[in-house]
Amino acid sequence: MIKIFFLILLIVVFYTYVGYALLLWFLVIIKRSPKEEEKVQNVKNRELPRVCMFVTAYNEVEYVDQKVNNTYSLNYPKDRLQYLWLTDGSNDGTPELLKKYPHIQVQHQIERKGKINAMNRGMNYVQAPIIIFSDSNTVLAKDTIIEIVEQFEDPKVGCVAGEKRIVDQKDDNAAGSGESIYWQFESFIKNMDSQLNSAIGAVGELFAIRRELYEEIENDTLLDDFIISLQIAKKGYRIAYTPKAYAIESASVNVKEELKRKSRIASGGIQTVIRMPELLNPFKYGLLSFQYISHKVLRWTIAPFALFLLFIINFLILAQANLWFETTFYTLFFYLQLIMYFAAIIGWIIENQKLKLKFFFIPYYFTAMNYASIKGIFRYLLGLQSVVWEKSKRA
Description:
Helices cover 50% and strands 13% of the residues. It is of the alpha/beta class. The protein has one domain. Strands 3-2-1-4-7-6-8-5 form an 8-stranded mixed sheet. Strand 1 (51-56), helix 2 (61-72) and strand 2 form a beta-alpha-beta unit. The chain is globular, with a radius of gyration of 22 Å.
C-alpha cells in the first residue's frame, strides 16, 4: 500500500509541474495543421476602437510619473484612449500628482475599501468597449494596445491575457532568479493553453476584457484578475494570450517578500475553487475544465502537499526494506530528492547574494513557493487572509 501511495504522489507531482506542460505541447502540435495560419486580423488599416486604460492604485506616488509617461508613449491614437485611475484610500499624494496630467481622469475616494471595490466602482466611469487593466508599477511594451486590440477582432475572444516579464539581471538573487524562471515557464503554458483552447485566467499586471462582459465580484475576492477572466470564459468566450503585449516588472526584493505574494495567491486559489465549483465539471465545460484542473487546481490543492509527502513516503520505503545502498528506483529517487533539498538549503543560505550561477536558487525558489502555497491554503481556511492587498517590496 505504501508503494501505491508513493506512485500516486509521484504521478500528481510530475503531472502538475512537468507532465501537463508536455501534454499541452504535444496536443498543440497535433492540433496545428501545416497550412494553418494565425487568423487574427490586422486592425492597423481599420477604424480603431476606443480603449480605456484602467489603473487602480493605493499609495503609488513613486510610480506615477513612470506609469503615466509609459502609457502616454504607447503606440495607439491618443484620441481613442481614456486614461482612468482609481486611487481609493491613497494618502501619499498619488491623486494630487495624477491631477497634474491633463488627460488623466482621477476618481478618488478617501476611504480605503480594497481593490475590488475600486474596480467595481470604476466601471461606472468607463467610456470604452475595451478595458485594459494594468498595475501602476509595471511598464508596458510600446505595441501593447494594438496587439490586444487585434486579438479582440475575433468575436469569440472575451478576454486577452498579456505576458508578465520580470526584469532579468545577469547577477540576480534568489527571488529575482526564481521569479524570472517561473514566469518564463508559466508564459509557455499560457501560450499553449491559448493555442489549444483558452488561456486559464489572466494576471493583473496586464489583461483586457470587453466592457459588456464585466460582472461585479464580491468585495472580499482575493484574485480579482483570475475571477474576472474565468467568469468570461464560463460564458463561452476564449481568453486569448498574446506574448507580444507584455508588462515588465521588477522581482520581489527577496524570497520573504515573494512568499507573502505567493501565499496570498494560494489563498485566492482555494477561494476560487470553492466559489466556482461548476468549473470542475468537464461534462459541462469540457476542455476548459480539464485545463483549469490541470493548470491551476492541482497546484492550489493537492500538489504542494504531495511534493513534501513524496519525500517522507520515499524515506519510509527505504527504511522499511533497508534499501539505503541498493540500486533501486526508490533509492535513486530518494537521493535525487535529497540533493534537490540540499541545494534548496544552500540557496536559502546564500539567497541575498547576487550570483551568475543560479542553480541553487531554482530548487530553493520552487521549495519555498510550495511551502507558501500550503501556508496560503491554511490562511484562507482559517480566515486569516486579509482582502486588503499587502504589497511585496520590489527590487
